[in-house]
Design goal:
The complex is a heterodimer of chains A (245) and B (295). In chain A, 84% of the residues lie in helices and 0% in strands. Chain A contains 9 helices and no strands. With 295 residues, chain B is α/β, with parallel strands linked by helices. Chain B folds into 2 domains: 210 residues, P-loop containing nucleotide triphosphate hydrolases (Rossmann fold), CATH 3.40.50; 68 residues, no CATH class. Helix content of chain B is 33%, strand content 29%. Chain B is built from 11 helices and 15 strands. In chain B, the strands form 3 sheets. In chain B, strands 6-7-8-3-9-10 form a 6-stranded mixed beta sheet, with helices on both faces. In chain B, strands 14-11-13-12-15 form a 5-stranded mixed beta sheet, with helices on both faces. In chain B, strands 2-1-4-5 form a 4-stranded antiparallel beta sheet, with helices on one face. In chain B, strand 9 and strand 10 form a beta hairpin. In chain B, 44% of the residues are buried. Classes of the chains: A mainly alpha (245), B alpha/beta (295). The interface between A and B is medium-sized, with 29 and 33 residues.
Chain lengths: 245, 295
């Protein structure tokens, strides 16, 4: 008798999420090319003809490009929402319970793919930051890498909150509602005070504080992501083990 | 894995109880003998799906015990599930997959997955291997589920309303497959349906459930032999003791009475018109047994 290999179950996950992966990585590649073209145009193209003031503003915007690229990449971590959406809508969950594969294995496969998407996101984010630095002729700083790590931790954390909420309510729409609430609360209690302080002439101080926090957090980013994924895995297995009452 | 085949009953349910708001599966007990096919009959909402979901540990039951293939269904959950197949009334596979991809997925799920057997079933059912499931008809989708169910050497098939909504030709084809499946005497089937004609053709035993309670369980031939329909006039009806029948259907043309004891009725009411009955009639008369008289 053969031992179970899980290739088929990996195939199922990836096949169902293929559109998410294809669109996200295509958007990332397209946006990367767009960013490079903008930067090149500031040196050699039409954008070089802009006034110094406009050019400085544009350069400030280009410094955000690596982070925007990494947000796109880490959104791939959220692939499982598509698969869950299908699982909740069809009888697959019911069928899954009738098979000899435990929830630890079914959910484990999702988390292996999530982990791979996270690592790939990190590698591609750092690679795109280096590529951008070559184009804009600015070295990659520790701050840039630190912010990429913060983006990774934040996206993974939010993605896991959405996944757990979806399992709690057995609906991805409810997971979306939870994310919306978190978004509104973050805006009110985090973003608004920061904007206020920035308008209050202490903008540089705030930026410095945020940068320092990012750099200080960097060594803890990977352990944090591992912890978030580990705890979420356990939580989701227990939620998936719940049976209908 | 426990491959013990020394069990008498493929399924043993004792005192299964599950309470919902407005519905109770009440102390359900029945057995499915090894090597047999049991028809599980009841109206929509009678408790068939709740019983099947309890068997598969999809829902937690409040009390009772379930043994499948000689093992406790919770303690040996995964061992049992390696050796059983469940077929549901709706397709559980995503519509963008094709049969070839389903085989790839099932190969990861079942240790005894037999790809060549699966392909044989696909060919036999005329199911295209590379066509997306979403483009299949309802009958094709059901055949695909059955092909999956029969391709990993399962010793017990549990079907929840699997033939509902299919045309008679497809249903007959499926019933033939089940007969072949049961040639191996260690295999058994529990088939829930409200299409009693299918179960009358194929089952060895039947269990009737209504409003969460088992009304009747036993060998189909015994049930069909013992139950008879007495057709009589209103005046004859007054002579019949109410303890001798299940219920009576009253119409302008006369009265039909279902009794569960052919021998007794043949002796006691020999002058009346006694006829054979069907599972469908039996179900109808039992469902209305509470009213005693109905039309």
């Amino acid at each position: 008798m053969k031992n179970n290999n899980y290739r088929g179950l990996f195939f199922r996950e990836i096949y169902l999420a293929r559109n998410t992966f294809i669109s996200l990585y295509s958007i990332w590649a397209g946006f990367l090319i767009f960013c490079i073209l903008i930067c090149m145009s500031m040196d050699f193209g039409n954008l070089a003809k802009l006034s110094e003031e406009s050019l400085n503003g544009l350069k400030a915007s280009t410094s955000m490009f690596p982070y925007s690229l990494s947000v796109i990449l880490f959104l791939a971590v959220n692939y499982h929402i598509d698969v869950c959406n299908f699982d909740f809508k069809t009888k697959w969950r019911c069928y899954q319970y009738s098979t000899p594969v435990s929830e630890w294995k079914f959910i484990g496969i999702k988390f292996i793919i999530t982990s791979v998407a996270t690592v790939l996101g990190l590698i591609l984010s750092i690679a795109s930051a280096f590529l951008m630095s070559k184009v804009i002729k600015n070295p990659v700083t520790k701050k840039t890498i630190a912010i990429i790590f913060i983006v990774m931790t934040t996206v993974v954390l939010l993605s896991m909150i959405m996944l757990i909420s979806s399992y709690i309510f057995r609906s991805t729409a409810m997971g979306g509602v939870v994310m919306l609430i978190i978004g509104i609360l973050s805006y009110v209690f985090l973003a608004v005070p920061i904007f206020d302080k920035m308008a209050d002439n202490s903008g540089k101080e705030i930026t410095k504080t945020i940068n320092n926090f990012c750099i200080d957090f960097m060594p803890f980013a990977i352990p944090s992501v591992i912890l978030i994924l580990g705890l979420s895995y356990i939580a989701i297995v227990f939620l998936a083990k719940r049976r209908e009452q | 894995m426990n491959n013990n085949v020394n069990y008498e009953n493929a399924i043993e349910i004792k005192g299964l109880t599950k309470k919902y708001d407005g519905f109770t599966l009440d102390n359900v007990s029945f057995n499915v003998a090894k090597g047999s096919i049991m028809g599980f009959i009841g109206q929509n909402g009678a408790g068939k799906t709740t019983t099947i979901r309890s068997l598969l540990n999809i829902i937690r039951y409040d009390s009772g015990s379930i043994n499948m293939l000689g093992m406790d269904n919770i303690e040996h959950e995964y061992e049992i599930k390696e050796q059983i197949s469940a077929v549901f009334d709706e397709m559980p596979f995503h519509e963008t997959f094709n049969a070839h991809q389903i085989s790839k997925i099932m190969n990861s799920i079942y240790k005894e997955w037999n790809n060549s057997q699966f392909k044989e079933y696909l060919e036999r059912f005329s199911l295209p291997e590379k066509k997306k499931i979403g483009k299949f008809s309802k009958g094709m989708k059901m055949k695909l589920q059955i092909a999956v169910a029969l391709s990993h050497n399962a010793r017990l098939l549990i079907m929840d309303e699997a033939t509902t909504g299919l045309d008679p030709v497809v249903r007959n084809e499926i019933l033939d497959i089940f007969r072949e499946y049961l040639i191996n005497e260690s295999r058994s089937i529990l088939m829930s349906s409200h299409i009693t004609s299918d179960l009358e053709k194929i089952s060895d035993s039947v269990t009737f459930i209504d409003k969460g309670k088992i009304l009747l369980t036993g060998y189909k031939d015994d049930i069909l032999y013992n139950h008879v329909l007495i057709k009589c006039s209103k005046s004859d009806y007054k002579e019949i003791s109410s303890s001798d029948f299940v219920s009576a259907r009253v119409s302008d043309y006369g009265i039909e009475i279902m009794t569960a004891d052919r021998n007794l009725c043949s002796k006691k009411y020999s002058g009346l018109n006694i006829e054979k009955t069907t599972l469908e009639e039996i179900m109808l008369f039992y469902v209305n047994a509470g009213k005693k008289e109905w039309n």
